[in-house]
Amino acid sequence: MVKKSDSGFLIRKGKPLPLGVTVLEEGINFSVSLPESDTCRLNLYEVNSGLLKESILMTEEYRSGSIFSVIVKDLDLTEVSYLYQGKGEEFIDPYAKLIYGRETYGKIAADGGRSGSKSGIKGGFFTGEFDWKGETPLAIPYSELILYKLHVRGFTMHLSSEVQGSGTFLGIVQKIPYLKELGINAVLLLPIYEYNEIILQRGIVSTEKINYWGYSKENAYFAPKASYSSNPSEAVLELKNMIAALHRNGIEVIMEMNFVKGTSHSLILDCLRYWVMEYHIDGFKLTSETIPGTLLATDPYLGKTKLMAEGWDFQQIYPKDSGIVFKNLAEYNSDYSSHMKQFLRGDEDQTKTASYHIKRNPDKSGVIHYITNHDGFTLMDLFSYDLKHNERNGENNQDGADYNYSWNCGIEGKTKLKKVLALRRKQIYNAFLLLFLSQGTPLLLAGDEFGNSQEGNNNAYCQDNEISWLDWNLLNTNGDIFEFVKQVISIRKQHPILHMEGQLRSMDYISCGFPDLSFHGLKAWFPDYSHYSRVLGVMFAGNYVKINRQENDQIFYLGINMHWEKHGFDLPKLPSGRQWRVLFDTGIGSNLKGTRIAVNQRFYEVGARSVVVLSSQ
Q: Among positive and negative, which fits the CA dihedral 589, 595, 598, 604?
């Protein structure tokens, strides 16, 4: 039955699904789930004045299950914002595609005494169109992915970024040439949906903190964060422009989605599908405990979308002996990080574990390897601090992990002592070689490639300032680190044996005289996994994969010495006509500005706390 509202709008019972706001021929369909209320109001506000324009009461006749829905005819979406009201309290539509009131980062718009919402935050509508120009998903396999994790605001907020629209989606677009030069083909973004960045603290005087990372209990998961746009009123278009620009340059976009516990499973699925359909998002990093992994992994629409979580139950996801059309699932956990940090530090009983992580590359899923992440020390700080220094967080240094497997290389924090600085540099080079020459998908924390520091803060969740913003001046100061990372990424990309699609078998299954992957100790072919061992040799035999129709890939050998004394490594004998050449030797510098033939083809001395990379020629 069609009725007339107080303002003259024609209204009728709506369609319960889909939830949210949908434009139909009959009018605008509003649909919201409100299980604990017998009635629901749709409050419409004038965008410019904030005044209440219409309050539409939905009673039992507008209800289907726990969903209230109404169709409003002749409503101009460009002129209104909206809230729902149940049991006397207003709330934002969980499916709102746009949010008004959070246009300025760290501030909530006030009503200024106008009637309506107490906070000034309301749902809005985007009515424009965007031409994707027929683009199709990049669908880069995990084996070829180079992930780069960044915070949209912190990436370009510092004055040294020299971009227009610092701290925004536009800023990232202007850094695309930098990402391409580095060799990045996928970015993993901390939350870019609308979240509440203001943390209210109660004490003698109420104070506010910034929730910089974006892990909030108050979220509008369908709406892009307006304050991450150089023009908040155009946040939707600016984000789509950013994604399209990254795609044109061969870079995928992965979103981190932090759904709070208790979030409806149907909302989570609707949300992920929406971001893929509407924004062409390539994948998501998810907190697995908020939704059953099998529900995500078996959703037909997300079958070509990358899904990263801490673990998957593959027995439930894949029927026995079933094939995989597209490997879209990936494990994302901290095991690699914690174990490799201990190995790099020279801890006991870590060699066998390190070999496991270097080899690990499951057949049915990807695996994301990282040494540093946003929650912890940066790579520079990992080798500059033994202890966390979170005093500026205002929690008496009680927050953040107490144990980080870090090592200050002899002096805590900043120093001018050349010996300590050289050791820290070498440890950084070592870390990058281990990360990018492990199988699986490497993840690089933004700024690590030029020595970004957070001054020992390992929990900078509330630091919206120079602590967390990337200082691009360091790109000049630490240009050698940047060039080193570029070289290692380039070598990884050029040689498929260093980033295989599936698990290497450690067997000579083509009878070429070498297994595809083998581990060694100081004596070739005899790995030393004893308790006190800190040395490991790793050989990848390129005989098992071709770089073109005629040539097999090269053979690579990693000599890893995490002991504080130098050691001589026996080298495996190469086939006739081939020689070992030195690509990297962190014991004598970041790189060799080219390559040289190893003087002794059967033996190589690896310096203390150093990594050597050899390839066959």
A: positive
